[in-house]
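This part of the workshop introduces the protein records we will be handling. A record pairs a protein's sequence with a compact description of its fold. Comparing a sequence with its tokens is the quickest way to learn the format. The record below serves as our worked example for the rest of this section:
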Amino acid sequence: MTEEQMIGWLREEAEEKYRDFSSSLLPGVPKEKIMGVRIPKLRKLAATIVREGCGEYLQAEPGNTFEEIMLRGMVIGRAGGTFEEILPRIQEYLPLIDNWSVCDSFCASLKTTEKYPEKMWEFLLECLKSDRTYTVRFAVVMMLQYYVNEKYLKQVLARMEEVETEEYYVRMAVAWAVSVCYVKAPEEVLGWLAQRRLDEETWKKALQKILESRRLPAGEKERIRKLRSVYAESRAEHETTVPAAARTIVNSEYRN
């Protein structure tokens, strides 16, 4: 498929109403950069490009619309390869990411991570040090996608503690990661949450994400509500240490 054919296909599949919808979800992305092509259709096109041979496509300069950038990430993920082959593509792609949707879609496409978890982990640790908002978000979302397991869970939580940022989309990613960890290991993560290792704003967002989860029973959510209430009371009373009531919640049983 030539570049001209690809652009023609995207234009044919674009929908004005979907463009308006997408624009409403992507604050900060100029509407003129959004064509309005649905994500499943982009995945279908990515599969076609990889099937026909994506070497030339990946060597060409990327387009600048939301869909072209999204598509490129999908092709990189679907193309796979050894870690040494895919890493330079990831490094070249990361500076193109300028919104949460492209970031998270790219993470979901990188199934190669499951073959090379140790090597990718080391790369993600470097990404966490970046001064680019979406490179840091990329690292956090990759961790919650592929590393919330028995081997890496403690390391994921430790890395979340180290993320210091005022960027909304990074904070939300950290909160999301903590909620995924909680679903995986509620006892361990509840104890960690009770110690308030995150900044206050991100900590609150993490609790809210947990409460919004559909994968937890009511009893688990009740413990989170009580933990949030305890800290609200302690702040009103200007306490500076971990409230004793928080430790009580950790050791109590509220499950159904």
Observations:
- DSSP finds 15 helices and no strands in the chain.
